Amino acid sequence: MTRKLYALCGTDKSRPFSPHVWKAKLSLAHKGLTFDVAPVGFTAIPSLEEGATKIVPLLRDGEKLVNDSFDIALYLEETYPDRPSLFAGEGGKAMARFVESWSQTALHTAIGRIAIMDIHDSLDPVDQAYFRASREQRFGKSLETVAGAGREDLEIFSAKLEPLRHMLKSQPFLGGNSPLFADYIVFGALQWARIVSPQRLLSEGDVVTDWFERCLELHGGLGRSVTAA
Q1: Where in the chain are the domains?
Q2: How far is CA 48 from CA 9, 64, 67, 102, 156, in A?
Q3: Using an 8 Å Cβ cutoff, are 70 and 100 in contact?
Q4: Angle at 17 between CA 128 and CA 137, to 5 degrees
Q5: Band of the pLDDT at 1, cuts 50, 70, 90?
Q6: Which pLDDT tens digit goes with each residue over 80-130?
Q7: Which residues contact 128 (CB under 8 A, 6 or more apart)?
Q8: 3-state class (DSSP) for residue 95
Q9: What is the rounded (10 degree) CA torsion for 198, 204, 208, 210?
Q10: What's the pLDDT score for residue 88?
Q11: 173: which DSSP letter?
Q12: Rounded-to-integer distance, Cα 226 and Cα 229, Å
């Protein structure tokens, strides 16, 4: 059975950058499942699978369509229980929900401002127009003004990682001795920044950097298969 994962990309279709797509990619690899990546730009998403989604990732697994990275992880856990677990039980699911909330509020908002012009510049012209209009409506200001605020986010970004840094002093992954979906959530955010922006958010010698490097090497170096910007 061929699985297809629709992944958000810019002009270079070999560089999927969405943090949510990366969560799904590592989840599929964690389960040992083969899949093809179908690159798609922002404006093409509504036409996917006869209008099945407004967001990516979107996974087609045989006749089944699943969108939203967390729902994809839950689907994989339920459908393939004989393969390595993404959550290691109900407690792991609850932990992952918390980690996702923290990542989206503390990390995604900052990275979105830090990298906003890099994201825009990586897109095809039709997607650039969509991205500018939708983000300027969301923020109530120009992309350039948002990017100015992003410079302040860059200066204090390391402090946002302190909860992760504290945890990783006593274990190699958020999941313990091996990664779980919670690791892929945070990895996805930092991988997004790594792929789309030349700004470097992690410092050498930091335990978070060491953890991120370990994540890049997981599943045959899947994360490192796309080079840094």
Answers
A1: 3-79, 90-225
A2: 14, 14, 11, 30, 38
A3: yes
A4: 40
A5: low
A6: 999 999 999 999 999 999 999 999 999 999 999 999 999 999 999 999 999
A7: 120, 121
A8: helix
A9: 110
A10: 97
A11: B
A12: 9
Q: What distance in Å separates the CA atoms of residue 58 and residue 69, rounded to the nearest whole number?
A: 8
pLDDT at 171 over 80: yes
Is the pTM higher than 0.85? The answer reads yes
Residues 136, 143: contact at Cβ < 8 Å?
Answer: yes
Fold of 90-225: Glutathione S-transferase Yfyf (Class Pi); Chain A, domain 2 (1.20.1050)
Q: What is the pLDDT of residue 51?
A: 87
pLDDT at 193 over 80: yes
Query: Residue 33 corresponds to which tokens in the numbers above?
Result: 């499942």
Q: Which CATH superfamily is domain 3-79 in?
A: Glutaredoxin (3.40.30.10)
**CA dist 228 → 16, 129, 194, 223 (Å):** 12, 25, 5, 10
Asked whether this chain's domains 3-79 and 90-225 adopt the same fold, the reply is: no
Tokens 């899949």 label which residue? 35
In 145-198, the DSSP E strands lie at none
Residue 221 to residue 18: CA distance in whole angstroms: 18
Q: pLDDT, tens digit, for every residue of 123-155?
A: 999 999 999 999 999 999 999 999 999 999 999
Start-to-end C-alpha separation, the chain: 34
Residue 147 in tokens: 């990017």
Amino acid in the structure at residue 190: L
